[in-house]
Specification:
- By secondary structure, this protein is of the alpha/beta class.
- It has 6 domains: 148 residues, no CATH class; 158 residues, Immunoglobulin-like; 167 residues, Rossmann fold (3-Layer(aba) Sandwich), CATH 3.40.50; 127 residues, Rossmann fold, CATH 3.40.50; 174 residues, CDP-glycerol glycerophosphotransferase, N-terminal domain (Rossmann fold); 182 residues, Rossmann fold.
- Helices cover 29% and strands 26% of the residues.
- The chain contains 38 helices and 50 strands.
- Strands 13, 14, 15, 16, 17, 18, 19, 20, 21 and 22 form a 10-stranded antiparallel sheet that branches. Strands 3, 4, 7, 8, 10, 11 and 12 form a 7-stranded antiparallel sheet that branches.
- A hairpin with a 3-residue loop joins β5 and β6.
- Belongs to the CDP-glycerol glycerophosphotransferase family.
Length: 1097
Amino acid sequence: MKNIKYSVEENDLIIEFTREKPPYEYTLFLQRENTQFYFQLIEQITYDEHEYYKFSCSLNEFAEFLSKNKELLQITDEDDSENNQYKFMITAQYFKYDEKTDSNKPINKIVKASKKGWQFCNLNHVVDKNSGHVFVPYITKKGSLALLVNKELSDTHYYLRKTISKINVYEKKLLIEGNLTTRFFDVKSGQIEFIQRGGEKSVSFPVTINPNKEQKVNNFARRHVYHVEVQMEDLVGFLNSLEQKEELTIDVFFLLKLKNTDSELRFKIGNPRFLARYFLKGEMAFFSEKNQDWLSLVPYFTIKGNNLSFNYNVYDKEAYDYFRSNKNHWRSISKKGKSRNIWVIGERSYKAQDNGYHFFKYLRKNHPEIEAYYVIRKDSPERKNVEPFGNVIDFYSKKHFQLMMQASYICGTHHPSHIYPTRNKKYVKNIKAKKIFLQHGVFGTKNISPFYGKWLPDFETDMFVTSSEKEKNIAIRDLGYEQDEVAVTGLSRFETLFQDDIPLKRQVLIIPTWRDWITNNRIFEESEYFKRYEELLFDPRLKKFSQNYDVELIFCLHPNMQDYVSYFENAPVTVIKQGDRDVQDLIKESMVMLTDYSSVVFDFSFLHKPVVYYQFDRSRFLGKKPSHLDLDNELPGDIAFDEDKVIECLFKIGENNFKMENGYVEKADKFIKYRDRYPNDRIFEAIQNIPKQNQIKKFFREDPLVLKVFSRYRRSKYYFPTMKLFYKLLSHFGKTNDRQIVFESSVGKRYEDSPRMIYEKMVDNNEGYDYIWVMNNNEPLKANSNTTIIKRLSPKYYKYLATSKYWVNNQNFPTYLTKPKKTRYLQTWHGTPLKKMQHDQEQIEGRDEGYLARVTHAKNQWSALVSPSSYATQTFRSAFQYNGPVLELGYPRNDVFYMPNLDEKRENIRRKLNISEDKKVILYAPTFRDNQKKGKRFTMKNKINFRIFERRLGEDYVLLIREHVVVASKLIIPEEFRHNIINVSKYPDIQELMIASDMLVTDYSSVMFDYANTNKPMYFYCYDLDEYDDMRGFYFDLEEQAPGPIVKNTSNLFRAIAKGHQYWDNYGEKYQVFQDRFTPLDGPDRAEKVYKAFFKR
């Protein structure tokens, strides 16, 4: 179809298109699953070379059709983000002759616009007056023609991208310029909206938007440039109408009207270009003569979405005048406090009951020589907690501005900026104090790297307080901190946590944390969060538990939940708002805690009292980033995913006399090193011992502009020649570290295989080497937090390769490198060969002319090669033309199959992948194809028919698909199959996937040899066996020796799997022969044998 036109005329959908003269007729219909509603062909014109079609669909008649078929409008999934229950696709059907069946076969195709010619007109809402149905004709993001019924398009449906190229913030006005791109429709008009976060008040201003001059005529992406100018005086009325005057966030949105559709766009302004973000400064301000105060708007870009927002505060005249008059004098003010040893402590502007309060109290009582101040708002109800100790400073006061600039140390429980009087960039830049992150709870459950990662430009800390070695390792591994930046001291509040001063009461503390996605009453009322807790609190079994064991039920509301207290007024529990009672007092006096993900659960567990976790929405709460912990195995309490399990756990605890099980005591103790009352002594000592940093080094290591410039240089043509020269000079003249080992696996993409097993065994045995791992993440730090992580091809990569005594790799280091003379290189390789390699290949596909010369040079660097069998040794020597030492001791990577806790490990891996116990797991791990490339990268087409799998095996099986590491193409699994087909290509360790699986499906991959160690069935899906054999060649006859059926299509594959009960009768003998030939040396502790044979020489 060409020249498609999609429009609405009165209440009719109109589709027009042209087509080269086809030998068949078209019909069009609205379709959802098996339901079809036909268009009428109202015009057809035949021209010399093409035909013109015009179809019409009456939406009034379609409304009648829907009224007669009400089941089409039944909604079963309220969270249907794909609109599958509301949309009908416009589908074309024609009949095509099929030679095989000698009949005309119907072909259905969704009507899709072509970039070569399309037109969308008047795609406005249509309301059927009789039924009340609302129809929204629209274009899907991929260009398909569709119709929504009784559902609005999302505010961002036709939005594609945005950028801010320039932003200037002055005291009296704001200027923004940038680009925005919409889908399919040009912008007719636009506004910029300022709206209070979490509220409804807003103000809008017009935006100048023009088409980009470089716009292509028929491109689906419609590019525009915009210009915004807003005067501060025009914002004053809106700001004065806001009830909250401090710490309020103002978000900024685009409101766009589009041409040829009445669907509008609403999305946040953001995505600044680097320089726009880096040089963002200034603030908007206005003095109110009437109130004698200053209104201030300080711009910033959000962490999550990189969108523009403003911090809104109101300052008294004296404080802000002081700030304004000293904008260019902060350095001199800072020097005046240098000799005073000023410490500023705080939590949030209104809080004083957590670690900040406890540490301030400790300083005032035990260190009078230190000039310690606490900053808190005048009107805070918690101010009374700190006032008895003196030196309490009003937040936003003149003194607050002054002390921050003069402080030697700033100690806070959140971002340091939460206790700054302003986030004005110029002011903050002049604060030279050391920043101490006291934390507000033991972390680990939810991934906090997006908020407290060292790489974040808006979070700065010189010392990160933790409570255990486990927590410290997470801060180093996942948050990017150095060893000397993290202190294991315990939290400040633990001083009173372990104080035996509050009697135990017969009460259960129910204390859930908040959900960020709940932003107003409507969302709260409709949320699973509200429904689950409402059902739990009113559950008669909970009441029975309370009566049977004579315990009071306390429901403690999160601060963000306090606007919704009324929803729980009639619940048969005691409702408490955080702030009305000290949370630590509640923890100490309660017998049991029921929570979800709140960090206070760790405090409770440290008292060795039982905990129940109610995690009904774990996946949504944790989000895309995984927890820092293995939740199912490391949390110190029972985990329930439904109400029945919660009740069961509570009764179990009651039957156990409210004692914590020994296993959970052990788990709790792993999160705390010191169960005593002296954390503040340790925190104080750690602060005193913060090492001095070289500010120049810090600037070059952390400044965003420096990193950006290096990133540009890294992508330039000059980088690799420079690195080669750097490596050459260092390898010749640098000093070799005799205790240093560089490990790499799968070209630095995965932490797996024999290098991993060798490394972990050496760590377990305390061998005392300096370990360097080439990785894109910090996974190796789980085994040893002192390991140095470097990125592949970075300057450090060349530095460590040039100066290390040992290299360990399962593939090759860059082939252009020659190892230093003193360096010894252990090549573990990455599998037993089936397909012919390198010098044994008659013809090499997918590689350039210099390939063999390069890999031969790489082979010449090896000091020893690991082999699992005499067969492998023979093929390695032939393929690589290698005559050096071979350690024929078995594969270290297969040690994992001989570990004592294999069943437990299997359960954990399956739980991590959300696979239920009753499902059988198929691991599909094909190799790559040499002749399937796009540019310089290998690609691969998926050859598994998902629909056939679903139909044949979907009820009882889960399919894991693992692409080869060198394959660059992205596997896409349609939403409808994701419940039992999982892409595990990025899972860090394939050996773990083998453990979790019940059978393997592969083709020519060496994974078959490793899998033989599991004694589980194997199936060989070799759809291109003859072609592959001709292209690569095999070292043995696969059809003759394969320990499982060889199939060439999906149907036969799944048929063979369905007959799994016959597998061992048919292939048991072949399996044994296969193991004897290819895995005779695999077994426990191969890693230890290999490393001792190599490193102890």
